[in-house]
Design a protein that fits this description.
Spore Coat Polysaccharide Biosynthesis Protein SpsA, Chain A, 2 domains, two-stranded parallel ribbon, 13 helices, 48% helix
């Protein structure tokens, strides 16, 4: 009976920690009823968007760069290869929006093994303003995008980020990706931010140029395989904090395959393990699988059907995730609780894979974490 009570206590602690993370995310992530107007003294801002290939909703996400309600900003699109199919799309958008200063830079700088970072270097160096946003090409920017990033900046801030909010799913596997992105990854990132241990997220990053320049400029981000991990270490080394926006910006997903979702999750997990191994170590406890298994075993020791114990734990945890999604007006459907379960069955496999495998492919580029990569010359 002592073992049963010990397991029940462990299960309770894990459930409470998950519910606390839901509560922190609900408190800190709130949808805006109306767009945030720009401040009268709004500073100039440069938006650098690295582009590679044609994504779902490509014209909508890239086109949103030109629809921002902000008085002084420029957009710099960066493409590594001259034969990239996204170039005609960018040229069309730039020509259709002459009122917004926009530049297309073709060609990258091979400073690291990270092709996205290589693609950003020339854009960063060409940026005219003191405030620079690095934003992925698949972000759907709301009209108040810039001012919401700036509003999160505090005197102790060194970087403001937004993780992706999965939206516009067009099939089942896109909804599975939403189960990963929204009420799991975004939730834990808001929870970390809420207790003062925020991490950078490379989807949207607002820099004040002098902070990164003091660390060696954008080339300093080549110190890690992932630019957001390097950004986290740069900001912490400066004694500053990473803050998050009031609510994540949408990433329209469209159609996904199970392979798409799987490859992204194992890639991100391997990079987290490589760059922050001590923080990655307890990730196995962050999903619902561990408390559900412990709860099932404890229930059996108490003479209750193990399936009932696991079902009770999952019902409590998924109720918290549902509350988070609904409070933020994120995508939610009757399928999502079942996809939460599939996600939580996948997470332990993703976790152990991350400890065992070092290689992955990102947009056709083979990458490894076996040793520090040397830039090509």
């Amino acid at each position: 009976m002592t073992l049963a009570w010990a397991l029940a206590l462990i299960c309770l602690v894990l459930v409470v920690l998950n519910l606390i993370s839901d509560g922190i995310a609900i408190r800190n992530s709130k949808p805006r009823a109306t767009p945030l107007p720009p401040a009268p003294d709004s500073p100039g801002v440069s938006i650098v968007r690295p582009c590679c290939g044609i994504d779902n909703f490509c014209e909508e996400t890239l086109g949103s760069s030109f629809k921002l309600d902000y008085p002084s900003y420029e957009v710099i699109f960066c493409v590594a290869r001259s034969n990239d199919p996204v170039i005609p799309v960018l040229q069309k958008l730039i020509a259709a929006n002459p009122a917004v200063p926009a530049t297309l830079i073709i060609g990258d700088e091979r400073i690291s093994a990270n092709p996205k970072l290589n693609n950003c270097v020339r854009g960063w160096e060409a940026a005219r303003h003191e405030w620079v946003i690095l934003a992925d090409s698949n972000v759907l920017m709301p009209r108040d995008y810039i001012q919401r990033l700036l509003a999160a900046w505090q005197p102790t801030t060194g970087l403001v980020c937004s993780m992706p909010q999965g939206s516009h799913p067009q099939n089942l596997w896109a909804e599975l990706e939403i189960a990963f992105l929204n009420t799991y990854q975004a939730r834990w990132q808001y929870a970390a931010d809420g207790v003062g241990t925020g991490f950078a997220q490379g989807k949207n990053m607002l820099w004040r140029r002098d902070i990164l320049d003091d660390a060696g400029g954008i080339r300093a981000l080549a110190a890690e395989i992932a630019e957001d991990a390097a950004s986290t270490k740069v900001v912490r080394a400066a004694g500053l904090e990473i803050n998050l926006v009031d609510s994540p910006f949408p990433q329209p997903l469209g159609k996904r395959t199970l392979g798409d979702v799987w490859s992204r999750q194992i890639r991100w997990a391997r990079m987290r393990r490589k760059t922050f191994p001590l923080h990655f170590f307890p990730e196995l406890l962050s999903g619902s699988a561990t408390p559900a298994i412990i709860g099932a075993y404890a229930a059996g020791l108490f003479g209750v059907t193990p399936l009932a114990g696991a079902a009770l734990v999952l019902a409590i945890l998924y109720s918290g995730e549902t509350a988070l999604a609904l409070s933020n007006r994120w995508h939610f459907s009757w399928r999502l609780p079942f996809l939460f379960l599939l996600r939580d069955l996948m997470l332990p496999v993703v976790y152990f894979d991350a400890w065992l495998v070092n290689d992955f492919v990102w947009r056709g580029t083979e990458m490894t974490m076996r040793e520090k990569e040397r830039p090509s010359t």
